[in-house]
Known about the structure:
Layout: E1 2-4, E2 10-12, H1 13-17, E3 39-47, E4 79-86, H2 93-109, E5 112-118, E6 139-143, E7 156-165, E8 170-176, H3 178-188, H4 192-209, E9 223-225, H5 226-231, H6 241-262
Amino acid sequence: xxxTIAGHLDVTSCHLQCIEAPTRGAHSGVVRNELATAVMxxxxxxxxxxxxxxxxxxxxxxxSSDRSSGKDAIGDGRARVQVRVYDxxxxxxxxQSVALRAAAGVLAAAGIDITWxxxxxxxxxxxxxxxxxxxxxxxxxxxxxxxxxxxxxxxELSLGYSLVDVPASAGALATVYVDRVEWLARxxxxxxxxxxxxxxxxxxxHLLLGTNAHGAAGLMRAIWSRGELRRDDPADWLFTPAExxxxxRALERRGRQVQMASNIDWGR
Length: 268
């Protein structure tokens, strides 16, 4: 199957799996056909040790980041996005449902409502028709494959990554490795499906924020340690108000771009 991203070259699932695994911090993937100049790979690390979070990153300059306020600086209107889920690992239906509910809950707290399109195994006759169509400009896709990774000497393992178009400050395609998330969940003694949902929400955050940078705290921190997972502080699994506002603004921009494109009279 070839998944087409609007405004980009066709990208195959094999191609995506062949990108070099992300390391700590920002990382540029070597991508064929000159995409390397426009695409950054944003990675998420799981740690079996009690590691510190990655470097701080500021989103939406000028917006309040006071988590205790519960509101953004300029209002709290909601946004919506459709996300396709390609289940390359063929997860049990119950586990995937739990993961998607967890991801949707995190994004709902950020003022973003999700419509999931569950595509299942590639090429399956049971998939919705849009699963094989090109991605719309205002649509995202998340792949859930299994692919063994290499645990570093520090006990860290890459859990997933997102492809971000740097000039456009946007992304459309993310990957979360189901087997690696399950490994981290076993190390910490937490629910694997819920942790997978948090990882999905993290990668969707990269796509909407349009950056491979991470936050100092909250869901967008770069490294998730065993101690943090066991502690289960609710603030660790939420976007900051500034990040939430930036993502909603990004969806508003995408919506305006789609509307403008639909108003063009291509016959002239």
